[in-house]
Amino acid sequence: MLELKDIYKSFNKGTVDEVQVLKGINLRIEDGDFVTLVGNNGAGKTTLLNIISGSQFPDEGRVIIDGVDVTTMPEYKRGRMIGRVFQDPLMGTAPSMTINENMALALKRGKKLGLKWGISSNTRNIIRDNLKILSLGLEERGKASVGLLSGGQRQAITLLMATMARPRLLLLDEHTAALDPRAASLISELTERIVGETGVAAIMVTHNLSSALSMGNRLIMMENGRISLDAKGEEKKRLTHEELLAMYA
Ligand SMILES: Nc1ncnc2c1ncn2[C@@H]1O[C@H](COP(=O)(O)OP(=O)(O)OP(=O)(O)O)[C@@H](O)[C@H]1O
């Protein structure tokens, strides 16, 4: 469903600060793949997600989603195909808006917003049913401002919002890294549940090697702008923490 063909990306080209971040990435992600993506600081993981989401464009190479070449398609136009959750729980939601309002906006992702802005009772029911999935009791707090929620609750809502409009691909950029251990484990569980139930293809960047090994069906390591390991299925299952750690350059 996602194909990256010979992706190159540099920053500050032609200056002394030039840095070549992606050096010929070729990758094919199939429907239902749940990829954990690891690698050193600066290996190019976030840049790769930026290029997939359209927040940055590659210097060379093609990005293809479901057979459509989206290489130069702006990010907002890919919004319906791609959901994304960032490390900072403050980034995915609007704090002064209520839970219901945030979720209603997420449901409309990629669709035209009309001049009238209101939440129908049907939408309210869909939101309620979705919030129940979280098992956090938030379905009773639809009218509460998102800004009043904890980081973990907020990230849970962001995750739900990123997947509610049924994207084809979910990008998770260290989305549990800023949470306390209990909240991080809740969000990891939720991620597995939501990815499993919706069948959305997912790429999850993490520095947590235990999560990288235990979650998903495929593990990719990036090193200095290239893919240095792509372990799938049984190969991934056999991989140990020590082996993975030893692969870090
Ligand atoms: N907009 C930019 N301008 C200049 N350099 C950039 C820019 N974005 C990223 N870089 C550089 O590109 C390199 C790769 O960054 P990137 O954030 O993709 O790595 P990463 O693997 O996600 O790292 P981390 O694990 O630390 O998040 C780094 O050297 C970074 O400084």
UniProtKB/TrEMBL annotation:
Classification via Pfam families: ABC_tran (PF00005)
InterPro entries: AAA+_ATPase, ABC_transporter-like_ATP-bd, ABC_transporter-like_CS, ABC_transporter_ATP-bind, P-loop_NTPase
Membrane protein topology class: Peripheral membrane protein
Location relative to the cell: Cell membrane
Domain ABC transporter: 2-249
Any one annotated GO CC term: plasma membrane
Keywords (A to Z) from UniProt: ATP-binding, Cell membrane, Membrane, Nucleotide-binding, Transport
Main location: membrane
Gene Ontology terms for molecular function: ATP binding; ATP hydrolysis activity
Coiled-coil features, chain-numbered ranges: none
Superkingdom, taxonomy of origin: Bacteria
PANTHER family attached to this UniProt entry: NITRATE ABC TRANSPORTER ATP-BINDING PROTEIN (PTHR42788:SF7), TAURINE IMPORT ATP-BINDING PROTEIN-RELATED (PTHR42788)
Protein name: ATP-binding cassette domain-containing protein
